[in-house]
């Protein structure tokens, strides 16, 4: 590992320690660092590891009587033996926030779902959703490889896994695909199969709407989001992708209404490790219930209401759906069979091929 890599990593960590926002610290420093793609990937791995295990790093540095500074965080990254020693001590002493390296609230959620710890803490590939209406997936893979990106197929049939630098590839630049986690692609595939009039009620800058259209080009997709800037970005991206998507005007009813709600994001902590240090998780359920209560009005008789969140915090997942169903007896729960990346959870299911997404399918009774 070169000194250039170590020094860039330390600079990013310093910025993150001062200002928070790991992604921004990387964006501010990496492009002007003069590092090659491979070196950048190494920097990303170091920074992710430090942020992901920050509480463990602090515990180990304190115990080793070393100052908590960027240089020492980078030094410790190369000393697995020391990190493992202190991880064991934290486990033996039931220091859950240290061994999960999370806020106490988040550590308690991870205690409920220890099977997700590995997913949340691993370095992940970047996934591309190929616009299969414009290019075959095998041609997209060949194109990525010809540009020097290591890439492989993943699931579902739109998905390619690659290094994060593939976001600069011609496939993305030319609107032949988007960066989107494989679990989101599975969710879009499900939504696309449920009907042809679809409302994406929390569309953000468009990810799921786009892949719904990749899977079901005939679908009429309307979008809404509380954030107008995101919607503007959605329409710019849709144009580049050649997709016809309309703005929702608060009228009509739909075969499918997708509520991809704002959430604590613990399921995407592998990509955004800062999510693990959150407190006040209780702010989300209220917001989610309000959005569901508004969105449900636009579900047609026997239409579907799909609720999804990228988290596994019970208050935001099955307990939320349980409450919604209790208060809205005109909706019933629809079950989905277990599949390769789909496991049943109370009132819904988890998709676990990439990020951990919880989703529940509800249907308006006729
Ligand atoms: C998890 S993100 C959606 C991501 C998006 N579906 C995608 O696939 O990229 C949640 C979105 O909900 C939006 N939001 C927050 N409050 C809302 C509300 N009351 N009504 C509609 N959208 C809301 C946020 O602006 C944010 O874009």
Detailed description of the structure:
The structure is a single chain. This protein is of the alpha/beta class. The protein folds into three domains: 3-101, no CATH class; 126-179, Alpha-Beta Plaits (2-Layer Sandwich), CATH 3.30.70.1170; 182-364, Rossmann fold (3-Layer(aba) Sandwich), CATH 3.40.50.150. It contains 16 helices and 13 strands. Strands 5, 6, 7, 8, 9, 10, 11, 12 and 13 form a nine-stranded mixed beta sheet that branches. A four-stranded antiparallel beta sheet has the order 2-3-1-4. Helix 1 (3-19) crosses helix 5 (70-77) and helix 12 (182-193) crosses helix 13 (207-215). The longest helix has 17 residues, at 3-19. The radius of gyration is 21 Å and the shape is globular. The chain binds S-adenosylmethionine. Residues 184, 201-205, 207-208, 224-227, 230, 260, 262, 291 line the site of S-adenosylmethionine.
| Full CATH superfamily name of the largest domain | Vaccinia Virus protein VP39
Strand share of the residues?
A: 15-25%
Radius of gyration: 21 Å
Average of per-residue pLDDT values: 96
The CATH class of the largest domain is identified as: Alpha Beta
**Main sheet summary:** 9 strands, mixed
* Cofactors, ions, other ligands: S-adenosylmethionine
Overall form: globular
Q: Quickly count the helices.
A: 16
Quantity of strands, as a count: 13
Order of helices and strands: HHHHHHHHHEHEEHEHEHEHEEHEHEEEE
CATH fold type of the largest domain:
Rossmann fold
Helix/strand class:
alpha/beta
User: Between the first and last Cα atoms, what is the distance in angstroms?
Assistant: 63 Å
Number of domains: 3
The stretches of 5 or more residues where confidence is low (pLDDT under 50) are none
Estimated helix fraction: 40-55%
């Amino acid at each position: 590992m070169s000194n250039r890599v170590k020094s860039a990593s330390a600079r990013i960590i310093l910025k993150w320690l001062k200002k928070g926002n790991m992604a921004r610290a990387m964006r501010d420093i990496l492009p002007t660092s003069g590092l090659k793609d491979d070196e950048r990937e190494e920097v990303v791995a170091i920074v992710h590891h430090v942020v992901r295990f920050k509480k463990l790093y602090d515990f180990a540095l304190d115990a080793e009587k070393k100052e908590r500074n960027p240089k020492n965080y980078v030094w410790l990254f190369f000393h697995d033996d020391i990190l493992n020693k202190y991880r064991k001590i934290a486990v033996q002493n039931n220091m859950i926030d240290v061994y999960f390296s999370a806020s106490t609230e988040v550590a308690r959620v991870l205690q409920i779902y220890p099977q997700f710890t590995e997913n949340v803490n691993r370095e992940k590939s970047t996934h591309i959703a190929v616009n299969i209406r414009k290019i075959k997936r095998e041609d997209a893979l060949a194109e990525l490889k010809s540009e020097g990106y290591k890439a492989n197929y993943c699931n579902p049939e739109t998905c390619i896994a690659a290094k994060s630098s593939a976001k600069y590839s011609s496939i993305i630049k030319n609107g032949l695909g988007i960066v989107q986690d494989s679990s989101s692609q599975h969710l879009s595939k499900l939504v696309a199969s449920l009907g042809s009039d679809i409302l994406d009620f929390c569309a953000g800058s468009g990810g799921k709407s786009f892949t719904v259209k990749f899977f079901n080009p005939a679908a009429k997709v309307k979008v809404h989001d509380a954030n107008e800037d995101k919607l503007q970005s959605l329409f710019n991206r849709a144009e580049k992708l050649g997709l016809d998507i309309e703005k929702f005007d608060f009228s009509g009813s739909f075969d499918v209404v997708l509520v991809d709600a704002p959430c604590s994001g613990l399921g995407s902590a592998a990509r955004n490790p800062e999510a693990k240090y959150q407190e006040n998780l209780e702010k989300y359920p209220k917001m989610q219930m309000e959005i569901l209560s508004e969105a449900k009005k636009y579900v047609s008789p026997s239409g579907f209401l799909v609720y999804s969140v990228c988290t596994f915090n019970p208050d935001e997942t099955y307990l939320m759906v349980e409450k919604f169903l209790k208060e809205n007896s005109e909706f019933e729960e629809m079950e989905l069979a277990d599949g390769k990346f789909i496991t049943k959870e109370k009132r819904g299911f988890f998709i676990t091929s990439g990020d951990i997404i919880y989703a529940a399918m509800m249907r308006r009774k006729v």
